[in-house]
Amino acid sequence: MLLQLPSVRGAPNQSVLESSGPLADRVESLWWFALITASLVYLVTMGALWWAAAHARRREQRGEELPMDDERRMTRGVTLAVGATVVVLLVFLVTDLSVGRTLDPVPRAHPITIELTGKQWWWDVTYADTSPQGRFTTANEIHVPVGEPVLFVLNARDVIHSFWAPNLAGKKDLIPGYTQSMWFQADTAGDYRAQCAEFCGVQHAKMALHVIAEPPEKYAQWVAAQRAPATTASDSVAVRGREVFLAGQCAMCHAITGTSAASRNGPDLTHVASRRTLAAGTLPNTRGALAGWIVDPQQVKPGAHMPSNQLPPSDLDALLTYLQSLK
Amino acid sequence: MRRSYAKCRSLDSLRSLGMTETVVIPSGARSATSRDLHRAFGMMLLVVAMATLTSCKRETRRFRESPPSATPGGTVRVSALQPGALQDTTHVRNVYEGNAYAVSEGQRLFNWYNCSGCHANGGGGMGPPLMDDEWIYGAGSEQIYTTIVQGRPNGMPSFAGKVPAQQVWQIVAYVRSLSGLNPASTRSARTEHMMYYPGSQALPMETSPKQAFRPPAGEMP
Fold first, then answer.
1. Cβ atoms of residues A269 and A326 within 8 Å
2. Which of A7, A84, B21, B120 has the most CB atoms within 10 Å of its CB?
3. pTM of the prediction?
């Protein structure tokens, strides 16, 4: 009953108790099974303790001698308790292993494959494809079609990170130099929040990722939009903004497909305006937040690898206009 | 077997077993013990504080610090060849020089901005090596800074406007650490590439690293 309270349950889009998919369902039922079993064990133990205390007190009040020296009764009690403990632990072990086993194989020959790379402190997302033209890169946001398994190829660049979208699947670590894989399937559309679940440095807490599950046709639209190169700047302000981007510090770390900026150090900005958040789920993607982030990232995320950028106001304005045109 | 303690249900039975004496510590003795304890605890705190405080400076992370100077003022001499009386170069103290975190950031940026592309982790390739003691344009912090910002003939591009001043100063601290010019406490203990100096956790060498090992100097421009 306590778990129905919103404060205990947490945000619905980042909760193990709001599963949305076959994997998360298994994890959630395992969680409930463990909770109910553990609660029963707790109640039985407390009840036995209460009964023993009350029973002994009653007998003492009646003036009876307590049979504490009865070796056989004692042996029976201890054996029963140890046996029950072993059985409960064994049941936990078997159910845990069986859930792990059912989660392992990907139920499809050629699923959508996403290469997810953890970096301090953001997520590099590349959608794999058989043709080079089909590949595209984005950051901090994953779109998946509802009802289809998606395979993840996990890697890390600097330190160990961990990918955890509680509504969709269990955790999986991203280890530098060691490629791992996992999969999940989202059954209901929604915007699910995922979080780095392995301490990875000062900004570990601000390393979030949004998984957006949407109907297949909407997903196809999104993929087509992401595959296209960046929109060419049309008005004079955006053209100036593009110049600021390419001639200044931005191009040293960021890439925009269709321009000469191709560095892989920071997030790909080809379609930055289409994303919901900035700085790995830290800020909403608005003009003001973008300006604040560009000018002084160390105020928002101290220690982040993005340096502050002192730009003349007119240049900053042009740059914002250009970046916001990258839908 | 019957256990005797099962019968000790009350104080009476304890007494019947002869356990009447209670151990009482005299009050004077007790305070002496606690004073000793306090002193020992204080000493322990002091030792812990000393151990942690000494490492404070090495690990300070100043994220929003203004760099020493965006452009070193005065003359920055880049060559010993110059007409007239030899003018000394204006020295600028690099605040990142003694900071291990800043040096490690410099190391990261050295790879991010592809300095390794020509200088190959300090060993030299297309560009001159950085871990020897030959400096074509000077070894001072301000000299390395101007070299990075202005660029140099025969291949070194200018990074003016491309790398913020703060990061250039961090790279300067790292470049100087490659040949052991900055405090040993700020150097990385171990790198994955060749090293000019022993790591901070290595055993002391019998001869100075400069006498023992001298990487080939790069081609003069």
1. yes
2. B120
3. 0.78
